[in-house]
Fold these 3 entries.
Entry 1:
Amino acid sequence: MQIIQHYVLFPNHDNGMRLYKELKALGVRATIAPTPRVASKCCGISLMVEAEDIDTINQCSKEHGIEILKIASVERDVNPHRDKYC
Amino acid sequence: MENRIYFDNGSTSWPKAPGVAEAMSELLMGGAFNINRGNYEGAYAVEGLVLDTREQLGRLFHMPDSKHVIFTPGITYSLNYFIKGLLKPGDHVIVTGIEHNAVMRPLNQMAQEGITYDAAPTDAEGNVNPEGLEALIRPHTKAVIVSHASNVCGTITPIQEIGDICKRRHLFFAVDTAQSAGTLDINMEAWGIDFLAFTGHKGLLGPQGIGGFLISEVLKEQLNPYISGGTGSQSDSFEMPENLPDKYESGTMNLPGIIGLHAALSHIEKLGLPHIHAKKLDLTRHFLEGIKELPNVRIAGRQDLQNRLAVVSLDFLTLDNAIAAFELEQRYGIMTRVGLHCSPLAHKSLGTFPQGTVRFSFSASNTAEEIDLCISGLKDLLR
């Protein structure tokens, strides 16, 4: 079954930590994680969030002046054969 | 330090705030993980504490957006960031007559690249004249850099008035808070400060090796990052990120220092600045009253409690100042700082150049009994 995971991407760690703190205060579940390489090449952290919380997250970031690059939807792909060619 | 009296808080405060050493030790023993790099819970926890520390500093200096709080290894680094990241050949700068070499030396380096500067008129008590400062403004003046309080005599500079001048004349306003942070309430927004340089190890009661600056939105657009390198963000680019705080925070930061500062700021928030300032001024009053009748000693700077911090400089007229400091330490265990205090310009303004002074700088941890012992030592020394 295909599982889609949503990641909030930031220009830097500081913005990520800020949003994490605000969401925690609101009781919105978020997990800090490395940014999936497929979603961005720029490193840094992202927040793994639930689809139903995305509107709240967008509103919260606007209210607190937190910069978000985008919210990426990435297939949760744990493939043991990834990058194995022989 | 049994039977020792520490009166050198202008150099660095001691003792540090309760909890500073424990917090630093806990980090180093329990997991000093690197923030903005490590992708695991321990690193995120440290990152959370760093964010909390930025917010504490934002509250302390009235900067609502704490991403404008930048960490550096100290206030000298911060001032170098300002001077070398902003000024271009042809620019003119105004300083005051009480500036520390943390300002004067980088400015003199920049003078070789075509920067010029003038020092605002400053009297023999260390009082800076704002009108005199304004009269020095030229068409190519770019910034005003002032020390909030003299590290030699404790006289406070009228930064609110100077801030108004800078706002009116469209100049960048930089303030060196080395002696005043953690004692005076400093309102960056209301006073129009574009660049507020601070150190963590003096009045803020944190460890050495941590400091920083707070920067206005307007200045951020013009201040180049003096140091560049990895930030853990936008790593696909060779360019420095424009986002704060990354723009000015390259390389691994002094995390034990920041965590120690976090503990120190929590202590200061608990005590409150008015309490700290009042306690220090009480000690200063006691000291000034005690030394009033001493023969052959001159107080450099103000002799009253108005407009000052708990820093008192004495010039011994019949004794070499270095010998006086040595004897105070050897005979009575009183630790002071003698010489020019890295502020030759201030000593010239105060009329104590080149002999310098013996500086007594108090913290809220000092006691009236220690002041009494010092006064009795001074009386004995000058008998």
Entry 2:
Amino acid sequence: MADIQTQDPVYKTDALIAEDIDAYLDIHQNKGLLRFITCGSVDDGKSTLIGRLLYDSKMIFEDQLAALEADSKRVGTQGQDIDFALLVDGLAAEREQGITIDVAYRFFATEKRKFIVADTPGHEQYTRNMVTGASTADLAVILIDARKGVLSQTRRHSFLAHLIGIRHIVLAVNKMDLVGYDQATFDEIVSDYSNFAESIGIKDFTAIPISGFKGDNIAIAPSPETPWYSGPSLIEHLETVDLGADEEQARPFRMPVQWVNRPNLDFRGFSGLISDGEIAPGDTVRIVPSGKTSTVKSIVTMDGDKDEAVAGQSVTLTLADEVDCSRGDVIAAADAPPQAADQFETTIVWMSDENLIPGRGYWLKLATQTISATVAEPKYEIDVNSLEHLAAKSLSLNSIGVAEVTTDKPIVFECYKDSKQLGGFILVDKITNATVAAGMIHFSLRRAQNVHWQPTTITRDDHSAMKNQKPALLWFTGLSGSGKSTIANVVEKKLARMNRHTFLLDGDNVRHGLNKDLGFTEADRIENIRRVGEVAKLMTDAGLIVITAFISPFRAEREMVRNMLPENEFIEVHIDTPLELAEARDVKGLYKKARSGELKNFTGIDSPYEEPEKPEIRIDTTAMTPEEAADLIIARIIP
Amino acid sequence: MQRLTHLQRLEAESIHIMREVMAEAQNPVMLYSVGKDSAVMLHLAKKAFYPSPPPFPLMHVDTTWKFQDMYALRDKAARDAGMELIVYQNPEAKERGINPFDHGPLHTDMWKTEGLKQALTKYGFDAAFGGARRDEEKSRAKERIFSFRTASHGWDPKNQRPELWNLYNAKKAKGESIRVFPLSNWTELDIWQYIMAENIEIVPLYMAAKRPTVERDGLLIMVDDDRFPLKPGEEPEMRSIRFRTLGCYPLTGAVESTASTLSEVVQEMLLTTTSERQGRAIDRDGGDASMEKKKQEGYF
């Protein structure tokens, strides 16, 4: 370690390891935990700083150090010097290419705290990785090269840290050794940063002049080189910063239910991680969204029942009453429960190569609730460098926007600024299962809070009983010219003859009225299907057998409609006609137009048709007539 | 006001992870290697689901070459937890008599990597808990807590799902599976402290005692049964040794030590500062990136 001058931080417990190990372990048994993120590039000396923190807290083992020295000489970029980037860069592919693309977690400890450092190296995918790393962090260390001052990347890092709700910001002005430990340089940077921080709503930050390379003000402050600095060293600050556990525990109690523990008929426990507040046996709680109340009977753990539990603990609660409660519900303080709503204004960070498709159904996971949700066209996108609001129709990888989100059913939530656990969510693509976005709820939109579902006296069961039939939605899907409308017509005629109450919703017809404001962009086509789905749902509520004939080329939209209806009422009918045959028929002359380029986004030609994977009914039109097809479909729905 | 210690927070996080898997996976399993990390993981599972027993089986992908003490504790631990124990041994490796003396890296590949893949496929497990920690090894520092595997059990480090807050995405297509690492954020010292605080039973081999040993390739190997090929005239020497990590006995290097209590072991660990996997011969095959390569091939 000849190249790194060490200024050993002597923790008073270190000597205890050799002298009295049990005393040492006692001290270390009751450490706290701080998770932080380091923001900056390799140029700012970030890897060197992390390497130093690991080294100063004795977290680099001898064999690692030997390997590091060898690696530094072989592939390092620092000549004969130790290249700390090698220590914190994990994957072989990255090492070869000299880039880092992901989030890595590092661990070190002092006698007061254990630290988990999220390191998001590299410039590529920076927004996605930093937001990911920052989501679990209590504190952000924003590194600045003292020679360069506040740069646009400093602003970007600070904006993201603030966006994700990190309350503690440390401005680490690094490489002070290269500016001669000049106080004026430091003061100017702090003043610059202060103006910017205030403009984006950062109320408070701690600025520390450091040298990761030389070790100044890392462990001990003030360094002899900076007698003018009177604040804490970086490690002292990390060890003592108040994490606000008091505030968290003072908030009203909330525990999202993860799992119902039912080993036998006599025990029914609700397991979860307490997100806010504290709880004790005898406390009155409310189950949200149902609104039922009960009293906590016991807090059950393997170590015996507990007298209290607080935010951050995983527990199992039993209640005094037999109330309905399952995964996704939130057990909350009875007098201050969270709200449920189905429409929100949110900030969304897009994390996928595939752009956001407004109106498409995604899985939204918030706390323990997973539900189908759609995102509207963004109100605006935020340029992370200039912080300007830009007009946007969609969101692409690493872009951040503000958009309305609508869920299929009301979910229990809180504003993100009040509760990360109940205000932060992810979006998951329904086909690829990839996590495509992270979102933060600002507030629910009034509509959801004030429009209540009006219970009606005549229920959907009454409607269907009066008509003496089971309602259903026969959803025909297939290429243009596949025969959907033809077969749907025959089906309806036959059902009418059987005295069934039906209604046929045809694609072309709906566009003359209900959907005449919609065009043929991807978003409009999704909205077209959504409206048809809602109308069909109302009709099934009225007891009808509804038949629809729409190309409906995307699986996600068909699934969206399926999820709107009670189970087994959505019957997907795939009219399976090969493209060549449909094109050869070309009843409306549309394929010809599409081939000539006159018609854009035509399904099967320049826009995909995603075949149903498991349709309830598949009709091979090359093997049967429309009459035969209709008989087959009716046989499936009328027992 | 109650301030949670780092161990309390780690415990709460691990329990939360296990319950999420239980709620979202169809057919989870806990991989159990009988080491100290497995012991902690099993203990946390008991806590997570108490008073129910952990609602999934324990599975040991066996090589037939583990220490005898490990087999004894394995069976006892499963019994004590009230869990089904599945022991899987790759039938091909068994038939071909694959062993660490004659087959080198093939031993690990067939018994462990192939054995694990076969077992997961055979029982159709869609989520498997493993006791790996991020502080163990460089490639693990970047792995997610919910680590997604293709239908052929491969890991693609460039295509990992972002993991935010404590929201885990457990969605997957048929045939795909998820490896889950509830101890991701624990360090070796955390593990030891927790074992002491919670009185968790571990294999006695972690503590020093006089044991029969020989030297092979610079490693001190314990002669645990009569399958060990001694050189002509060679007599195992009784040495006071212990193990920092446990695996197949012919591949696991011991350290000479007199630390016979848990706190003495921790004391030694803190004073010697040699990282954990160094005693294990398996990481050395293939040089620098060997663990990452193994993971891509499906090793845990």
Entry 3:
Amino acid sequence: MGCNHEAIELMHKYLDGDLTKTEEANLRLHLENCESCQQHFHELKRTITWIQSTERIEAPQDFTQKVMAKLPKERKRVSYKR
Amino acid sequence: MDLMIKEKIKQVKKGDQAAFADIVTFFQNKIYQHCYRMLGNAHEAEDIAQEAFIRAYINIDSYDEGRKFSTWLYRIATNLTIDRLRKRKPDYYLDADIKGTKGLDMYSLLQADNRLPEEEVENLELQSYIHQEISELPPKYRSIIMLRYLEEFSLKEISEILDIPLGTVKTRIHRGREALRKKLRHV
């Protein structure tokens, strides 16, 4: 499985947008001929899609108020101006 | 949006505290989510996320307006979560409520108006499983995976947030992706 290591490097470079044109062509050619690398590539892309599709977590309702209540006192200059 | 934030920051720098409330409101979900994912429990996440905003406020004069505010803010938040993780006792993880699917109350994380039809349950279980697998990655991989794929920073920005070389970011995101691929491949 000597091909795998190099091909997997290329897959990650692809995912980071770092592939040169030549590397991209090499990867494409390799994927056409290697089923296990195809599978690997598919799994990587699926993993990313899953990470991106996870539920967003929201801050508690009163979050901003709590932060504001804990800030040090406003500088006098501005409060005086109001 | 960027323009609005820039304007608010100018006001805060002049001493207008009220302008900071808008900044908090704008970033609260992102920062809270980041802390939650790093720490794995709601109580600590709230604590640390609040602290991040308070520090941002106190240190606002050291923020360089030529740079992206979100990068600066995430840097503060990430450093705080890493400090907190370091201070934990090793057995703390046993108590963290994200472990397993029972403790992590996914239902409570859903928005209030969210309905729960039958067909979404399966999806929910998968999501919960993915959450768990992400939460079990070592923090140095977890932070990068989240910053890249949930918060959509570029690798360059991530290297600024974490203050590590771009090459290290690439090595870690590579390893993080491989680790998750292995965990999730049989799903």
